[in-house]
Amino acid sequence: MNAHQEPPEIAVRLAGPRDAALVARLLHAFNVEFETPTPTPAEFEARFEVLLWRDDVRVWLAETTTHPGGAALGFLLATHRPSPYHAGGIAQVEELYAVPTRRGTGVGTALMGALDAWVTRHEVGEVHINVDEVDQDARRFYERRGFSHLDPTALAAGEPAQMLCYVRDS
Fold first, then answer.
1. Backbone angles phi, psi at 124, to 5 degrees
2. Dihedral over Cα of 123, 164, 103, 73: its sign
3. Which of 59, 76, 106, 155 is surrounded by the fewest CB atoms within 10 Å?
């Protein structure tokens, strides 16, 4: 994991249950921006009021230090699950969002740095991130941080194979 330092105007903190409405608004804005079907902010808030109490759910908030009250700049939502392959389990980045006006200014990097520090402290074995194939900006961002869509075992054997995520509504 790469050491990181947030730009001085960005502070990252772990969200708690009192942040449910803020995280809900950010997630709703993210879904609306990318034209994804979305629950209402109130529905998200009710869910985050429960999720943010859980030990296997982490939400980091990036906030500005230059405005009173620290305006929200973005968030990273991750879940943590056990795995027989790794004593420290596996983390899944569920969502990473920076407000449009702050993209490219270090918000995503600061949030990923917080995740990296947490993963290191908890000896998490792998971090998974699902990215849409067409989202070249996100793919480049994660690849710069060492993530790959190629199976490392197959790659080491000289037989590059893409890893895929299959999804089905239940």
1. -70, 135
2. negative
3. 155
